[in-house]
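=== RUN LOG ===
request id: a7f3
mode: sequence -> structure
chains: 1
length: 250
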Amino acid sequence: MALNNRWWLVAVGLAVTCIIAAACVYPTAMLAPGPLSAGHRTLGEDCFACHQAGHGATSERCQSCHHLADIGLHNTQHRPLPAEAKRVGFHQHLAEKNCLACHQEHAGSAAALPHRKFSHALLEPHIRTRCNACHSSPKDGMHQDFKEQCSACHRQQAWLPATFDHTRWFPLSGDHAARCATCHPQTRTAAGSIVRRNFKVYTCYGCHEHSVSGIRAEHAEEGIRNLSDCIRCHRNGREHGEGGEGGEDD
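=== RESULT ===
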C-alpha cells in the first residue's frame, strides 16, 4: 500500500514537472488564452512585454508604450495617426488610470468579454463640465454664440434628445434664423461690467426698430398691456400671429 502511494506521488510530481517545463518552453501554447490582437502581434511570444512575473498584465506595462495623452492621436512610435482614424484624446483625464478595467487582450476566451463602454463618469470630476476639452461646438446659428455650459440643454449620457427645443417657443426660420446675440444680447451693470447672458430674456428690438411709445399706443387699442413678451401673441414672428404656431392661446 505504501509502495502504491509512493508511485502515485512520483507520477503526480512528474506530471507537474512536465507541465511547468512545457509552460516555460512553450508559454504561448500553454498559458495564452488566444492569439494577440492585431495591434500587438508584433510582440510575438514576448509575454513579459505586458506581463509581470507573479502579477500578470499591469497598467504600468501598458503605459510604458501607450502614453495616455497620445492614445487615439499618435501611435506608439509617436507618429500621428491618419486623419480618418483620429479620435479625441481623453485617457489622461480618466479618474482611474487602469487600462485593464476597460480593455481586454488576446483573441481567445477574453475576446468574449465586452470592452467597457465609455462613460463621462470615468473622467476626473473637474473635466466633466469642460465639454469643449473634447468636443467642438456645432457650427450652426443656434450654437455659434452660445457660451454657456452644454449641460444647460444636453445630458452626458447622450447628446440627443436635448432638453431645450427652440421651435417650441419660437421657430428660427426665414428672416428669424438669427444669431443668439440678436435676440439675447449681453447686458451691462451700472458699473459697466458685462452680465452673463440670460437666455430666458429676449428682445425683438435687435431687428425691429419700433419705438416703445409707438408699440404701446398701437397695442392699447387692442387692450394689450403686457408688451414685454412679444412671442406670446407673435409665435411665428408675424404681425397677427397667422399660420404655423401663432396665437395667444397656444
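=== NOTES ===
The chain has a mean pLDDT of 75.
The two ends are 98 Å apart (CA to CA).
=== END ===
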